[in-house]
């Protein structure tokens, strides 16, 4: 069956070869990210996901400061590889930092005590959906991206440098930019091992 949306899902890949020349304007990129997150579902429609959208120098600064944090913990002899990886993210046009607003989670836990244990999990799932929505929307616009996780190592640095409040808990980082190479091969497991269909 032909499906436009599945074609779009296929188009979304992890792009590690990023450049600075976006095929759309910064304003349009911002709007795309905002709209994608707005339309992503969340448990109880709590809208617990937050984002810091960093362009240009701000994105580069984020990866520079991340490098400094990693330098403190990565053995010197292995740092060249780490540095090269971070430089490839900094080579992009921007980075989206995804957060969960823990105040929203706490509020829901108080309001609906019966589901208290579920709310942090649902906030994570909702954040993942927001990430997927943005990643796919960017891919549709010809913008490449990947998903990274340098939290919690960089949390304090992000709070200090961009004045992010303590209730915004960093969950993922998405460097994005122009597609400078074809994405790598992707393998898929057999459907038989993955799905059970009845009826
Ligand atoms: C929850 C989640 C966490 C991920 N974490 C990372 C990560 O920390 N670094 C990274 O390079 N890719 C990360 N990825 C990307 C996956 O490795 C990638 O999506 C997967 O290999 C399939 O490739 P594709 O994105 O090209 O379809 C993550 C993906 C998901 C869904």
TrEMBL record:
Top-level taxon of the source organism: Bacteria
CDD domains: Frm2-like
Keywords in alphabetical order: Cytoplasm, Oxidoreductase
UniProt-annotated location(s): Cytoplasm
Keyword Transcription listed: no
PANTHER family reported in the protein's UniProt record: FATTY ACID REPRESSION MUTANT PROTEIN 2-RELATED (PTHR43035)
Protein name: Nitroreductase
Organism: Stenotrophomonas terrae
């Amino acid at each position: 069956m032909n499906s436009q949306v599945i074609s779009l899902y296929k188009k979304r890949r992890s792009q590690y070869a990023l450049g600075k020349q976006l095929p759309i304007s910064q304003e349009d990129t911002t709007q795309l990210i905002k709209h994608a997150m707005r339309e992503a579902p969340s448990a109880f429609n709590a809208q617990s996901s937050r984002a810091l959208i960093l362009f240009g120098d701000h994105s580069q600064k984020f990866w520079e400061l991340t490098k400094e944090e990693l330098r403190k913990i990565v053995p010197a002899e292995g740092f060249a590889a780490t540095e090269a990886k971070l430089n490839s993210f900094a080579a992009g046009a921007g980075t989206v930092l995804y957060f969960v607003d823990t105040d929203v989670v706490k509020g829901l836990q108080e309001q609906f005590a019966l589901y208290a244990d579920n709310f942090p999990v649902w906030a994570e799932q909702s954040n993942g959906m927001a990430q997927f929505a943005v990643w796919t929307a960017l891919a549709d616009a010809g913008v490449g991206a990947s998903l990274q996780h340098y939290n919690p190592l960089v949390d304090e640095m992000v709070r200090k440098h961009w004045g992010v409040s303590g209730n915004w808990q960093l969950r993922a980082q998405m460097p994005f930019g122009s597609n400078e190479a074809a994405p790598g091969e992707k393998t898929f497991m057999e459907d038989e091992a993955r799905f059970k269909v009845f009826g």
